[in-house]
Amino acid sequence: MQTNLEKIRAEAESELAAAKDAADIERWRNKFLGRKDGAVVQILRGLAQMPIDERKAVGEAANSLKVALEAALATKEDAAKREALAGQPESSKVDVTLPGVQPAIGRYHPITQTMREIVGAFSSMGFQAVEGPEVEIDYYNFEALNIPKGHPARDMFDTFWVDYKNDKGERAMLLRTHTSPMQIRVMEKQKPPVRVVVSGKVFRYEATDATHESIFHQVEGLAVDDNLSLADLKGTLYEFARRLFGADRKVRFRCDYFPFVEPGVDMAIDCFNCGGQGCRICKETGWLEIMGAGMVHPSVLERVGYDSKQYTGLAFGIGVERVAMLKYGIDDIRHFYANDMRFLRQF
Ligand code: FA5
Known about the structure:
Blueprint: H1 2-18, H2 22-33, H3 39-46, H4 52-86, H5 110-123, E1 128-130, E2 135-137, H6 138-141, E3 173-175, H7 181-189, E4 194-203, E5 215-226, H8 230-245, E6 251-256, E7 261-270, E8 287-296, H9 298-303, E9 311-319, H10 320-328, H11 341-344
Parallel strand pairs: 1-4
Antiparallel strand pairs: 2-3, 4-5, 5-9, 6-7, 7-8, 8-9
């Protein structure tokens, strides 16, 4: 039996040395180390029929042959892999010591970031965030906000009209010129107390310059309750300015006119570029207007069925791009939409 084992070892060694590829190696494995009827297994199976005194020695010899053949197989497989790799072009070899490739990390557009920051500031003051349609009907964008057809205030909002006429033959659908129509939609559905912020895109048919785009974003705010006053409006907006720009920024309120509020104001922040001295960006005024605001007009409240003797409302509409310009010191609004990755990657 010992000579038989020596024969198997010699045969296995020479056949393994002659194996040329993975298929040869697999055949060799089955022949000598196969679990069903490999040469070594057959010898181990035959042990039972052997006389007891031979069994131990043959068993040990067969096991050490198995271990030796397994080691030889591992060496051969290793060498075969190395050879296969050496045959490949340089470019397809893997150098595991090289640092990995950093995956590109996406980020939010600076206007999305700013809009979220504005909404976040008001959410933490108890305002609920909602959104509304970008294609609006005349009623919500104008009529219900005290701007009937032919009202001169329509000129404040140069409008993109949708090519659709109602049954009276009037243009009745448009791209919303501000987020204020959502004031009406919210109040129609909800009874006071109301406290919402509406963020989204708005559209105006106007020429662009350093501070004007024809598509831009607003965040609208509306609160209706017993006893809200202009002091609440100013307090809320001061707090907003403090959160976004820090305590040092100067804030200015001036009377302004919007048909859906009374009184109306605009809020401006001192120009980031000239510090209030006057420059191209602030049109030599030293101030950048970031929002319109005011106390909701009683007839707007009455139109949605609120009792204007019991309830008062405050409202504001913030220009998101203007806030982002102030926050990041951007001197031209058009940079935001030029899709220049060198600009966008900075945020
Ligand atoms: C309005 O749109 C009113 N709906 C705001 C309002 C809401 C008043 C609630 C009262 C109560 P205005 O047209 O001023 O108002 O626009 C508001 C803000 O949007 C401006 O202060 C400015 O920051 C920004 N804005 C206006 N036009 C443009 C434009 N073409 N490009 C970029 N930002 C603009």
